[in-house]
Amino acid sequence: MADVSAPAENRDSLNGFLFALSAYLLWGFLPLYMKALAHISPAEVIAHRILWSIPVAGLLLIILKRTDDLKKAIRNPRMLGMAAVTATLISVNWGIYVWAIGAGHALDTALGYFINPLFSILLGAVILKEKLKKTQIAALSLVVIAVVILTVEAGRLPVVALALTFSWGFYAFFRKTLPIGPNQGFLLEVLLLSPIALGYLVYLNLEGGGHFLMGNATDTVLLASSGLVTAVPLILYANGAKLLRLSTIGIMQYIAPSMIFITAVFVFDEPFSVAKAVAFPLIWAALVIYTLPMLRQR
Q1: How far is CA 209 from CA 11, 155, 212, 279, 296, in A?
Q2: Crossing angle (nearest 10°) for helices 106-127 and 159-175
Q3: What confidence tens digit (pLDDT) does each residue in 56-69 have?
Q4: 1 confidence band (pLDDT: 50, 70, 90)
Q5: 209-214 long-range contacts, Cβ below 8 Å, gap at least 24?
Q6: What is the structure's pLDDT at 13?
Q7: How far apart are the C-alpha atoms of 251 and 34, rounded to whole Å?
Q8: Is the dihedral of CA 176, 122, 247, 148 positive or negative?
Q9: Which of 216, 220, 195, 233 is nearest to 94 (CA)?
Q10: Coil vs helix vs strand at 216
Q11: Phi, psi angles (nearest 5°) of residue 57
C-alpha cells in the first residue's frame, strides 16, 4: 500500500531489507489469522480492520510529526477524490481476500498475488503505453496459458485470483498518483472508509449479529487486533520500500504468496488439482523470466 521508490542513493540498506522482510512475513502468516475469523462475515471483519487501523496509523503520524500533510490532504477536494478511489479499491481487495481464506480458496489468493506483478506490467503497457520487453511478453504469455488451463478445468475463469489481481493492481497504480506519503495516505483512506464501517457495525450490533464484545473473548481480541494486523505490515513495507532498490522489492514480493501457497496446501489441506499442478509452475516460470533481468541489472 505504498509508493515504491528507490532510495535516494539507489542502493539497498539493511534496515530497509528488515522492514520489507518483516512486512512480507507478516502478510505470509495472515491467512492463519483470517482462518481464525472464518466464522465471522467478511464485511464485519473489514469494518473492524478499517476502524482499528485508525488509532495505529494516527499514532504513528503523531510520533513522526507528519500530521500537517494529512490536514492539507483533507482540505484538498482533488486529493480526497483520488483517495476515495484508492480506498474503494483496497476495501474491495480486503473483502475478496478475507472471504477467500474463510471459504477455502487460499490457493486462489496465492495465485492472484503471484500474477499481480505481471499484471502491473500489462497495466503500464496498456495505460501508460510503456513498451514491453521480449522477456515481459514471454512472461505474460505464460500467465495467459496458465489462466486458460485453470479456466478449462473449472469451466469458468479463476475469478478469485483475477479479482485480487485486478483490485490490487489498479490500487497500486492509482496509489502512485496520490501525492501524499504512504503513511498519511493509508490513514486518509481508512478515515474515508470509517463512516461506512462504523455505520455497518452499529447496525450489525443493533440487529444482534455482531461478534465484538458479545461474550466470546477470542473473537473480541482477534477483531480488536485487526488494526495492528492491517496497519503494521503496510507501514513496515512502506518504509522498507524507501530504503531498497526496485529490483530488490520486486524479488521480495514473492515471499508472501509463497508462504500462502504452502499454508493452503500443507496447513489448510486445500485440493491441489492437476490443472493447478500445471498452472502454478507456469506462473513461477513467468516470474523467473520477469525477475532475471532485474538480477542481471544488480
Answers
A1: 51, 36, 10, 40, 55
A2: 50
A3: 999 989 998 889 98
A4: very low
A5: 209/44, 210/44, 211/40, 211/44, 212/48
A6: 85
A7: 25
A8: positive
A9: 233
A10: coil
A11: -70, -35
Alpha-carbon span 130 to 121, nearest angstrom: 9
CA-CA distances (angstroms) from residue 106 to 5, 121, 152, 154, 270? 30, 24, 20, 16, 8
In this structure, what C-alpha cell is assigned to residue 173?
A: 497504480
Separation between Cα atoms, residue 42 and residue 200, nearest integer Å = 12
What is the model's pTM? 0.87
The DSSP letter of residue 254 is T
What does the pLDDT look like over 212-231, one tens digit per residue? Answer: 988 789 999 999 999 999 98
C-alpha cell at 191: 478515515
- Residue recorded with cell 462475515: 41
Q: For residues 285 and 265, what is the distance between their CA atoms, to the nearest angstrom?
A: 20
- Residues 8-15: contacts with CB under 8 Å, at least 24 apart: 10/245, 11/245, 12/243, 12/244, 12/245, 12/248, 13/243, 13/244, 15/240, 15/243
**Helix 106-127 vs helix 134-154: angle between axes, to the nearest 10 degrees?**
140
User: Using an 8 Å Cβ cutoff, are 113 and 257 in contact?
Assistant: yes
Q: What is the pLDDT of residue 8?
A: 45
Mean pLDDT over each residue of the chain, to the nearest integer: 89
Q: Mutual orientation of helices 182-206 and 42-64 as an angle, nearest 10°?
A: 140
Q: What percent of the chain has pLDDT over 70?
A: 95
32 to each of 38, 116, 211, 222, how far by Cα in Å? 10, 22, 19, 12
What sign does the CA torsion over 180, 115, 140, 20 have?
positive
Cβ neighbourhood burial of 199 (10 Å; 0-12, 13-18, 19+): exposed
